[in-house]
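Issue: copy button drops trailing tokens. Both records pasted manually instead:
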Amino acid sequence: MRLSIIIPVYNNEETLERCVTSIISQSFRDYQMILVDDASTDKSPSMCDDFVKADHRIQVVHKKENAGLSEARNTGIRKARGEYITFIDSDDYIQADTLAQLMEILSIHHEYDILEYPVWEHYGNPKKQRRLFLKKNVYINMDEYWFKGKAYMHSYAWNKIYKRELFTSLSFPKGRKFEDLHTLPSLLEQCCHIATTNKGLYYYCYNPQGITAQASARDHQDLLDAHLPTVRNLAKKSPSVDKRYLAEYYTHVLNIQLDVYEKSAQIPLTLPILPYYTTFKLKLLHLLGLRKLCIINKYYHRICHKHHS
């Protein structure tokens, strides 16, 4: 079997059929679909059972207690038998022939540990949706993929196909909201080749009740915590990575730190101040310090909100 497709399901009766149909209608057929019902309370469990009856390639695991997205994915990984693994969330779907195009690439390039493909981000929200275009590229330096390729901006678990062996001793962390960002750096430590392609398309559908839209201060702190180990090691990356890419990444994490303060009204001084000065915001950081920059950023956004309302 070439591919195991893992789909966590939790109260997705309105979108589940769209998701599953987008897979069973693919021209690529050599796969195992694993539906992990995370103790849903709507019609999702019975829908999963119907899919299993209709197609022998589909199986379902019904969990007795809701354990969260990470554990649902981990359950799917334990059931996976394919040479490769991919994840699709049950409120999303994939474009026709996506799997055929991706698996053809992997049939030629056995050395690829991970293959990443394009995404329609927040699809369905005219104000937020945008297409993540990816160029054909191969990375043998994982720091180049993370910083120059800006993988940290699209560290999603789902728009990627992985060699199953990468998860032999690795699992998604339980209790984390941004579990994919916590997991990808650990995956990269095992990789020798990562490729990006312009083939295929994942539809990441906008969900106003989803994790991203409903993220709390604690969730943003969790997101910040995922980045901190990398930030603390930035000085070691300097010889192999252009400093401008390091500064762009540091600015990205600084913005998360500012969001944490804005949402929590606290001053979490967990981000170390590093010697990057390439933007006005970074220069302000060194001039004012993190504490004052957090306060100014919060009041600036408050003024802008009043002006637009």
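Record 2 (pasted manually too):
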Amino acid sequence: MFRLSNLISSVVEGKKSRVLDGSIAIWNFTNRCNLSCLHCYSKADLDAVDTLTTDKIMQTLPKLKQNGVKFLIFSGGEPLTRKDLFDIADKCKELGIITYLSTNGLYVGYKNAKKILDTFNYVGISIDGSEKTHDHFRGLDGSFKMSMEAVRLLNSYHDTKVGIRFTITKDTYDDLRFIFELAEKENIPKIYISHLVYSGRGLDNLEMDLTKEQRRKAVNYVVDKAFEYYEKGRDIEIVTGNMEQDAILFLQKFTEKYPEHKEEMHKRLVQWGGNSAGRKLLNIDSEGNVKPDPFFPQYIGNIFNQDFSDIWTDEPSELLQKLREHPRKISGKCSGCEVIDICNGGSRSRAYAIYGDMWAEDPSCYLSEEEIKGVL
């Protein structure tokens, strides 16, 4: 994740950098879901049967803690379909693991809203644009209204951290402005903009991804909004995901606005380190498979037949060791890039999907070689 808003405020105001001391785990606790989203990487549906038992999850959580996992994102499918979800989250709290809930919001209501907020440190609800766009993308008429009711309900409590998640594709591209206007109107404190990764239904619908020209325009808009909110004192945090190259374009714009802080910003972006799959990010899917990220085309182990400590720390695979090199050795235009230590080559899943080569350049990188050379 690339935290634009936090970087701007911390560097300009001379605050301590926000560094992740540990790893983030995204755990798909179920593949069961009440929606059928076009971009779903796990191809979830209501007919799915949970493989992960409560006991197996509870046995694994201490191993995550022992191996440096500091944040656990509850994902799916729709995680709120699990009856034991709050018990799992309570165990995380007991272990000192910070929990985020990623949900479509349809199972959030007055009966469980306060419990959700008391249990999870942050709740992200997916909104894919205007009502028409969202309902089409989610495969259910009325889903936009239900999701927004959940956002408003959770956001009505004081001192809560609730945000909306938006995946940008050709189908949702024209709704990007709507998302920001929605957050401004509803006083939603966080916007997470996710780029499409070719996996699950996202791979089946490869044609829905943006052109490089569209992506550049979209990222420019998002970055400009981050500066606008900071300069106007608007308390809306902006984060982007799955497109670490955003940080390079961001550095260019930051330098234009705050040239005196360029060196410090560059230092912090290198410290952030770009794509963290297999380094500071891991995924456990609903079958117990461990992957470097949720979209990754290869498994590095399975918690049903291996100890998590062996998979992640004690006996890391050759693939995991290569992913942990920083900067990674990537071919194509990445091989001579002077700022690869910022983005770390971007998504290996997209590279594999398009080129069949895990170590090829990210095909979605929208930056030209000429502008990359001019960053520093």
